[in-house]
Inverse folding.
């Protein structure tokens, strides 16, 4: 199964695509979508949407996962993050994908083993879990971590489902 992980942001959205075959994970692609802060909000959201559609078209994922919004000190930043996240959810849903949503602490715990992990630890563990990966930056590492978390959750759900039968 091909899984697209997304770390939303208006200025920079990280994305990562992995292949999950049973418990084996492999890297497919990763990167980020940047928007120019000088552009009007609708133009930035449109650019984000178009870039996501291109990623979906290039990689044909069967599932997607998005990191949930955390609230920060600046309400304007939180609102813009929420708007970017809405565009991301819409693009994935309109492409027919089921979208998993994960809190940042859950992603950190799933990938690193502790909900308080920092960006360096996430980057290092993603590199271990996906040998040979060249990560495009911290946002792409976070997106790959979200995809890995989703792969683990899907595998667990399948295992529990097969035991319930």
């Amino acid at each position: 199964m091909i899984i697209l992980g997304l770390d939303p942001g208006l200025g920079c959205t990280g994305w990562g695509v992995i292949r999950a075959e049973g418990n084996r994970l492999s890297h497919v692609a990763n990167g980020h979508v940047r928007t120019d802060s000088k552009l009007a909000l609708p133009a930035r959201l449109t650019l984000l949407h178009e870039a996501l559609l291109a990623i979906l078209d290039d990689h044909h994922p069967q599932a997607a996962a998005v990191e949930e919004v955390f609230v920060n000190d600046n309400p304007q930043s939180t609102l813009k993050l929420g708007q970017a996240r809405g565009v991301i959810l819409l693009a994935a849903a309109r492409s027919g994908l089921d979208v998993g949503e994960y809190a940042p602490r859950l992603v950190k715990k799933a990938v690193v083993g502790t909900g308080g992990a920092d960006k360096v630890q996430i980057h290092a563990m993603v590199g271990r879990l996906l040998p040979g990966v060249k990560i495009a930056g911290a946002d792409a590492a976070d997106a790959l971590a979200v995809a890995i978390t989703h792969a683990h959750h899907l595998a667990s759900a399948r295992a529990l489902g097969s035991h319930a039968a």
Notes: The chain has a mean pLDDT of 92. DSSP finds five helices and five strands in the chain. The beta strands are 2-7, 12-21, 24-34, 63-67, 98-102.
